[in-house]
Specification:
The structure holds 2 protein chains of 2 kinds. Chain A is an all-alpha fold. Helix content of chain A is 56%, strand content 0%. Chain A has a single domain, classed as Non-ribosomal Peptide Synthetase Peptidyl Carrier Protein, Chain A. Chain A contains 3 helices and no strands. Chain A is globular and about 35 Å long. Chain B is α/β, with parallel strands linked by helices. Chain B is built from 10 helices and 17 strands. Chain B has a 6-stranded mixed beta sheet with strand order 6-5-7-8-2-17, sandwiched between helices. In chain B, strand 15 and strand 16 form a beta hairpin. In chain B, helix 3 packs parallel to helix 4 and helix 6 runs parallel beside helix 7. The radius of gyration of chain B is 19 Å and the shape is globular. Classes of the chains: A mainly alpha, B alpha/beta. Chains A and B meet through helix 2 of A and helix 2, helix 6 and helix 7 of B.
């Protein structure tokens, strides 16, 4: 039972983080659909460098972290999965 | 490259700001962002208002005004100036050197070394290092370091990367010999492969200004500028600063054997609030110890931001007592430099308007 609950918690955290990222992205650029799979947000022009700054500020505040400045690179904001990895690398739980 | 200096001190700092203030809201209509996005830009970067020189006001005018103020108030005597050091990217002329123009304006003595250095955001640190090196000479006892820039007129009104942050200003710093040991630790690094990351393409000998270079062009981000305008590759500058500045400061801690918690204030160049907060976080320094309020209130005047930051945030504290400071500048060149020093008992540390 304990193992099942732990797995459930991890799954919930993953879902929550993904949902939270999409919510923040949508608030930032409401004209785009960030639920799409296989879309590169940078290449498609859905996020520019200034959006990345705002996104980092929002993510820092939401997760109580400070994303390392050297990680603020376009490739780390190209997809929801990339942003999830960025958050985990910088200590988000 | 590391430096150590002894028996030298800063004895006064005077910042000279233009009277003209322009608010972010007055200019945001020029940018290719919606009003809502402009306000987000303002909040994230800490933009509010900036000081802009009037048309025709040159770097030397601000320096001359500041020097006259010091002479008139008995804070500096002409005959004690052994070197005039002018650090700027906006000289009055290609030739002669602006420091010589200022020297001539005041009729300073002939035994006075005039030197112009073309340097920007690390210009205060580089200028201090140069001043300290000059003071190694027996014939030089007092150096007047002038940092000045009036680059706002070189920035396109439709460039949201650079226009909201640019500021014009000058600072005069008196550097002299002293009997106390007063050890200063400094370092400086250069990477000329990034020289064009911040540049003004036209107007020099490589590409003289013509009607063609004045044509406005749109970049991929929607900014409009001509080849006569300053261009900053913002992403490259941001990455450079985040990559190079933290290790430089860590090295300075080792070099000076000073613990980060024992530094009273971190007076860094002021590109924007976001960048400074990221540097403070990376270095494990309280954001409160690294003021980020100069762009917000006055704009970024290249090498003048650090002395402005010192005058604005410390004021009389530096007249009445001593404070351990870590200074850092980073930008055009690419150049990055830092200094660990105790500063205090200054004769003056203030801001005036011209």
């Amino acid at each position: 039972m304990k193992g099942y609950n732990e797995k459930l918690n991890i799954k919930n955290r993953k879902t929550n983080m993904r949902e939270q990222i999409i919510k923040i992205l949508t608030e930032l650029r409401p004209e785009f659909d960030f639920n799409q799979e296989g879309v590169d947000f940078i290449e498609e022009g859905m996020l520019d460098s200034f959006d990345m700054v705002n996104l980092v500020s929002e993510l820092d505040a939401t997760y109580g972290i400070s994303i390392d400045g050297v990680d603020i690179l376009p490739e780390n904001f190209a997809t929801v999965a990339a942003i999830e990895n960025l958050l985990k690398k910088n200590g988000a739980k | 490259m590391d430096f150590i200096f002894k028996n030298k001190r800063v004895s006064g700092i005077l910042t000279i700001l233009p009277k003209k203030t322009v608010k972010f809201e007055e200019e945001m209509g020029n940018y290719s962002f919606s009003p809502a996005k402009c306000m987000k830009l303002k909040l994230a970067m800490g933009y509010n208002e900036h000081r802009i020189a009037e048309r025709g006001q040159c770097s030397s005018d601000f320096c001359k005004f500041g020097l006259q103020y010091l002479f008139d108030n008995g804070m500096l005597a002409k005959e004690e100036i052994d070197a005039l050091l002018f650090v700027s990217q906006s000289a009055d002329y290609y030739m002669p050197p602006t420091s010589n123009i200022i020297h001539g304006h005041f009729g300073l003595k002939q035994d006075c070394l005039c030197m112009d250095i073309n340097q920007g955001c690390a210009g205060f640190e580089l200028g201090l290092i140069q001043a300290f090196m000059m003071l190694e000479q027996p014939s030089i006892n007092k150096v007047v370091l002038m940092n000045a820039d009036v680059l706002s007129s070189k920035v396109s009104d439709q460039d949201r990367n650079s226009k909201p942050l640019i500021g014009d200003a000058a600072a005069i710093t008196i550097v002299e010999k002293c009997e106390a040991d007063n050890t200063v630790y400094a370092n400086i690094k250069m990477d000329g492969t990034g020289a064009m990351v911040l540049n003004i393409p036209a107007g020099g000998f490589r590409m003289p200004s013509t009607t063609e270079t004045a044509v406005m062009e749109q970049d991929a981000a929607g900014n409009f500028r001509s080849k006569n305008n300053l261009v900053m590759q913002g992403d490259e500058v941001f990455n450079f600063v985040q990559r190079e500045v933290p290790p430089m400061i860590e090295h300075l801690f080792e070099q000076s054997a000073v613990d980060r918690d024992d530094v009273d204030w971190y007076m860094f160049h002021q590109p924007n609030k976001f960048m400074l907060h990221k540097l403070a976080d990376k270095l494990g320094i309280s954001r409160d110890k690294m003021p980020a309020n100069i762009v917000e209130n006055f704009g970024n005047a290249s090498g003048v931001t650090v002395p402005t930051c010192i005058c604005y945030n410390l004021g009389d504290q530096l007249v009445k007592g001593k404070i351990k400071l870590c200074l850092a500048g980073f930008g055009v060149g690419l150049t990055w430099s830092s200094i660990m020093m105790e500063m205090g008992n200054l004769m003056f540390n203030q801001i005036i308007e011209y």
